[in-house]
Design a protein that fits this description.
mainly alpha; 9 helices; 0% strand; globular
Length: 161
């Protein structure tokens, strides 16, 4: 029912927020392919309107996929989120807050269950470790400690560049 109502509202008021709601309710209703189409629509609307932080669009969709046990389907959107941190390069809380980006530790902790469900331990470690070359020194230290805590020590661990 919610999906139907959000679609009706979207027809009346075509906003990125409403398209995001259609995308997430589609996923929650078991219509993942439809949800993927709607999230792309939400992203396109948002690029034009800038009504939402783009990260909020991806996080909302990833959350819906995770809640329905579709962690593998969430990976492309998790990669978009991870890319924001890579491009920004800093994990400074003030900078992240000012740009409406979740703190780095929150990103790590909130994505861990999804990544662990979608990838094996070594793949998960590599997925996160790919951020190391892009991060500031504090971020590298935080990520390395978090990787050891979350995935255990690994012989394949990338050096803190």
């Amino acid at each position: 029912d919610a999906c139907y109502h959000w679609q009706a509202l979207l027809d009346y008021e075509p906003t990125a927020h409403n398209a995001l709601q259609v995308a997430t309710t589609s996923v929650m209703a078991g219509a993942t392919a439809q949800g993927v189409e709607w999230i792309e629509q939400a992203a396109a609307l948002n690029l034009r309107s800038r009504e939402l932080p783009m990260l909020q669009v991806w996080i909302g969709f990833v959350t819906a996929l995770g809640r329905t046990g579709q962690e593998r389907a969430a990976l492309p959107y998790l990669e978009k989120i991870r890319q924001v941190y890579a491009e920004l390069g800093t994990t400074d809380a003030t900078v992240l807050y000012a740009q409406r980006i979740p703190f780095f530790g929150a990103f790590l902790d909130n994505t861990r269950p999804l990544v662990r469900a979608a990838l094996d331990d070594e793949q998960g470690r590599r997925w996160y470790a790919s951020l190391l070359p892009s991060l500031d020194d504090r971020g590298k230290q935080e990520l390395n400690a978090w990787l050891d805590e979350s995935f255990g020590d690994s012989a394949c661990q990338q050096p803190a560049v």
